[in-house]
Amino acid sequence: MIRTARVLPLLLLPLLLAGCGTEKAGVDTQKAGAGTADPKASASPADPAELASRAEALGLDPDLVHVIDPPGFTLAQQSVGASDVGLSIAYTSLKTGAVINLRVEPGTMTDANCATQAAFAEHMTCVRDGAAWYRTGGGQIEYVLAQKGHLVHVGAEQGKVSRALLRKAIASVRRPYESELTVVLPPARAVTSPVERGDLPTNGDGAPDNSVGKGG
After folding, report:
1. Contacts of 97 (CB under 8 A, 6+ apart)
2. pTM for this entry
3. What is the pLDDT of residues 113-159, one digit of tens each?
4. CA–CA dist 71, 2 (Å, integer)
5. Which of 59, 67, 171, 192 is such that its CA lies 20 to 30 A from the CA of 14?
């Protein structure tokens, strides 16, 4: 099942989609990059030590920290979440209101267990599409890419986002750039001192002083 993560916002993985089934789709991790027209393509990757420090402060495995570049979608900063399971990020389209969800979690997948390892098992279908798997079921569609020890899920509500767009999204999986790090992995909140209250007496049981003056 899809797990709810608490709110917080990968080596650039070249992927190219080639033929599979009637849709001529496929993911080839050896050939294309994450959006060649993307102006961020020349940005510097985040410093590995800084990325690891921020991820570990949030209890997150640094290897799970990835982002995507879905065409026409923007990362929703308040959606970024980390849990004991992994990282989750939502990307929204201001034009259509559609949402693409990215989840990166520990795990492995094969052709044999693709249909059983699903967040939505109802009427599940799963087909190999190049280096990834394309799955549908329960009103959801998603691509799943297996990497070293973890799975990258890119999904959306069926009918809201096309398979072709999801294919482009999974093809853009990468590690965050330096300029994105504070959004994807904000530093752990510093512990702040308790606020001093002026209505607390210095003696007695420490209860608030709610007394009133004469005639009060």
Report:
1. none
2. 0.68
3. 888 776 555 678 899 999 999 999 888 999 999 998 899 999 999 99
4. 24
5. 59
